[in-house]
Amino acid sequence: MKKAKSISRSKYGYLFILPFFVTYFIFSLIPLLDTIRYSFYEYYRSGLRIVGPSFVGFDNYINVMGTDFFTYMGNTFTLWIIGFVPQIIIALLLASWFVDVRLKIRCEQFFKVVIYLPNLIMASAFAMLFFTLFSTSGPVNNILTGLGIVNGPIDFMGTPVGTRLLIALMNFLMWFGNTTIMLMAAIMGISPDIFEAASIDGCTPRQSFFHITLPLIRPILTYTLITSLIGGLQMFDVPQILTNGQGNPNRTSYTLIMWLNNLLRAPDYGRAGALSVYLFIVSGILCLVVYKMVNGQDNDAKAEKKAAKKRMKGLKGGN
């Protein structure tokens, strides 16, 4: 009897994923390689005259790596930290409360929708809203003055602390709902039997949270930290609109991407390419550091298990 020929359908899988790779190659990989190439060239506009492109080696990298680079990087990380730390704390608390069966929270779906809604609003609209609310003649100042809390209008955007806190507040409101939903999904993936067993053994809710919940949702926490870090380095629209692209006062809210945007508008493609490469390298290093910090304990535990197995094999071999 003749054997039936096996039918391979793997080619259909390649056909389905082909559009993604074609799109990635055209719109991501080629521009990325082109950006790296231009970073080694002097290519800018001086008045109406275009200078370059002419090869200059690492001159653009040396030129960009100055005082401004570290100042704007410090601004970027400051804005990210004061926005992300409250975000992850509130998101963890809300996720724990909504998932906890003992609390029996009513209208849970309604609250989920409400906390996620700000994530659907464009950052530009958020920035314009806050610019109107917290201006010297805005509703917030009118309310505070009317209640007699302050004697005169407060210039929220006239001080570095006020401007940075407003930007951090906007980033918090826009993203804490998305983070909460993700952490809720992670906690709901934990087997309820684990919590029941811990409760029977006398584990308090606080101990359960720190010793069961947090270790088991570590992969999602890692993902949240990394995506938030990348988003923080790419912070642009909120400070750009709120400060009219100036990063005022005294450029304390001026981020790296705002600087990159101004270099591209000049245009100064060589320095913009070098700055883009620096951002790519910094993002990669920081993401690797975050991953190692969050998952270091798991790797140590795996190494200990492997060492224990080797010792057991050695003991059995000796016997």
From TrEMBL:
It holds the Pfam family BPD_transp_1. It is found in: Cell membrane. The chain crosses the membrane at residues 12-33, 77-101, 113-134, 165-188, 209-230, 269-291. It comes from Pseudobutyrivibrio xylanivorans DSM 14809. Its main location: membrane. Keywords: Cell membrane, Membrane, Sugar transport, Transmembrane, Transmembrane helix, Transport. CDD domains: TM_PBP2 (cd06261). GO terms for cellular component: plasma membrane. InterPro entries: ABC_transporter_permease, MetI-like, MetI-like_sf. The keyword Membrane applies. It is a multi-pass membrane protein. This is Multiple sugar transport system permease protein. The keyword GTP-binding does not apply.
